[in-house]
Design brief:
- This protein is an alpha/beta fold.
- It has a single domain, classed as Glycerol-3-phosphate (1)-acyltransferase.
- It has seven helices and nine strands.
- β4, α3 and β5 form a beta-alpha-beta unit.
- α5 packs across α7.
């Protein structure tokens, strides 16, 4: 977001997009079975999964991940107790063969390099329906955190949904059928405790949105090993002015 956003304490009164979670559930259940039988036995080694009890079993939530490798969102999707809706770059739809998966799952396409309002409205419609959105706030894959985009703070504030940080490690090199990769440490996923932003009356300026984003990212950084924290490496700079 490169501009100020008018925000009230109430949720937006209308959405351009309607979201029907139930219509996606049969296909998503099928795809999860495929992931369970194929992906975690043949394409990626899962070492450890912790904290999935921190994801609310009902109601809206935003899962926030660090994004190291292609497989990161798929790991989360396959190991949480709810079918969630990821946001992904629109180019993912155009990848041969694999591009069919986001179509079948109903992934939210995001146009990179701009404030994609349509993608935000789509995500807010999912949250308004009481479901879960998965976001990689960096907007791209990196071995360590870079400055996050403000969309996650905007969605959390507008929807009132809690943010659930998820730290991923060991996803480099997967998916793979290489014996060498499978002999090395596998994927670990740790889900932290959810948090919310405090309500703010009046107009939400760009500076506040930026600070909210950074406060959320420092929560994620604290869960990561030091070499993954990147620009959020100095945890002493973390503030909690906007976090409940």
């Amino acid at each position: 977001m490169d501009h100020e956003l008018a925000v009230s304490n109430s949720r937006p009164a209308a959405r351009k997009r309607q979201y029907d979670h139930a219509s996606h559930e049969p296909m998503r259940r099928l795809l999860r079975r495929i992931m369970g039988y194929i992906a975690w036995h043949w394409l990626a080694r899962i070492e450890r999964v912790e904290g999935v009890e921190n994801l609310p079993l009902t109601g809206p939530a935003i899962i926030m991940i660090n994004h190291i490798a292609f497989i990161d969102p798929i790991v989360v999707m396959g190991h949480v107790p709810r079918n969630i809706v990821p946001m992904a770059k629109v180019e993912a739809y155009r990848v041969p063969v694999w591009g069919l998966f986001p179509h079948l799952w109903g992934v939210i396409p995001v146009r990179r390099g701009e404030a994609d309002r349509e993608a935000l409205m789509h995500a807010l419609a999912v949250l308004e329906a009481g479901e879960v959105v998965l976001v990689a706030p960096q907007g791209t894959r990196r071995p360590a955190l870079i400055q996050a985009r403000d969309g996650i703070a905007y969605m959390a504030y507008k929807s009132g949904a809690p943010i659930v940080p998820v730290a991923l490690e060991g996803t480099e090199g997967f998916p793979s059928i290489s014996k060498k990769r499978w002999s090395q440490p596998g994927v670990t996923m740790k889900m932290g405790k959810p948090f919310r932003f405090k309500p703010i009356t009046g107009r939400l300026p760009r500076e506040a949105l930026r600070q909210m984003t950074d406060e959320a990212m420092y929560r994620l950084a604290a869960m990561l090993p030091e070499h993954r924290r990147g620009v959020y490496g100095d945890l002493s700079k973390a503030t909690q002015d906007y976090i409940e």
